Amino acid sequence: MFNKVKKDYGMRFFIVLLLGWLSLGWIDPTADKIRDGNQSYRNGKYDEAYGRYAEIQESAPGLPEVDFNMADALYKKGKFDEAARLFQKVAGSDNVELQAKSSYNIGNTMYKQGKMKESLEWYKKALDAIEETTSPLNNDLAALRNDAKYNYEYVDKKMKEMEQKKQDKEQNEQEEDDKQNKEDKQSGKNDKDNQEDKEPQKENDTKNKEDQKQQKKEDDKKEQNQRPEKNKQKEQTGKQQQQLPQNPDQKQMTKEAAERLLDAINQSEKEARNVKKDEQKLQHRSVDKDW
Fold it and tell me: 82: domain CATH number?
């Protein structure tokens, strides 16, 4: 996202401003420091460049061009807060071109930190500074105006997209909350209906328990009333059971006696038949004897 913001304005501007100093390097040591700082900046050695510019600031304080280049070196090092402070210092100078370029670079610094609203404000200040100049625009300012306008429109579009995404997210969250509330409400209603359905069942269960309890009391009372009769029957049954062992023996004795009696009768009859036979034999012999 950050790569789409157009370029920063720095070293080319500083070199042009101090071109006169560079031509006098043989009599002014400041020119050597400027040349060394610019060369280190071009080679990406931003710490060395910052050190050279700092030395110039000590020997020639109050030059906004030096502050601008120091801020540029800090920006390249990723020290955006320190760079923004120095750029703001330069933006307050009387030089319109420095105001525009510093405001533009502050816009980039804010964008790098994700401060979209502040970034828009500084791009707008850069455009306003360019529009306020009464002299014809040089190539740097003309290019700067186009870049500031592009960056302003780009960031403004990104902010609107982010705002739209935020609104969509909030709307989705609200819809989810409404849906959840509706489901919770419906669930609560179902629970209430189920509870109402359970009340009659609960009453029936309570009534059945009471009926069972009452029935048990009646059964216990009935059992208590029947207990003397049962005890009496039990005693009678016990007496009968005590008498039962004698009856089989009595029946058995009667049968044996009957058999003995029958045997005796049979024996008597047999003896009677034998006596009769003997009598008949005696008579026959008696007759034979008479002959």
Answer: 1.25.40.10
- Residue 48 resides in a domain: yes
* Alpha-carbon distances of 90 from 64, 86, 127, rounded to whole Å: 5, 6, 16
Q: Which amino acid is at 190?
A: N
Question: Residue 54: which domain range?
Answer: 2-165
Q: How many domains does the chain have?
A: 1
Query: Is residue 174 situated within a structural domain?
Result: no
Judge if pTM exceeds 0.70. no
User: Is residue 20 domain-resident?
Assistant: yes
pLDDT digits (tens, 9 = 90+) for 69-117: 999 999 999 999 999 999 999 999 988 999 999 999 999 999 999 999 9
DSSP 8-state class, residue 73: H
The distance between the two most distant Cα atoms of the chain, rounded to a whole number of Å, is 218
- Residue pair 103/125 in contact (Cβ under 8 Å)? The answer is yes
pLDDT bracket for residue 224 (50, 70, 90): confident
Could you give the C-alpha distances from 204 to 170, 190, 193, 213, 217, in angstroms and in order? 51, 22, 18, 14, 20
**61 phi and psi angles, rounded to 5 deg:** -70, 155
User: Measured at the alpha carbon of residue 105, what is the angle toward residues 101 and 106, in degrees to the nearest 5?
Assistant: 115
Phi/psi at 273 (nearest 5 deg)?
A: -65, -35
**Amino acid in position 13:** F
184-201: per-residue pLDDT in tens?
888 877 777 666 666 677
Total residue length of the chain: 291
What is the average per-residue pLDDT within 169-186?
89
Quick one: pLDDT at residue 273? Answer: 72
Tell whether 43 is covered by a domain.
yes
Q: How far apart are CA 194 and CA 273, in angstroms?
A: 106
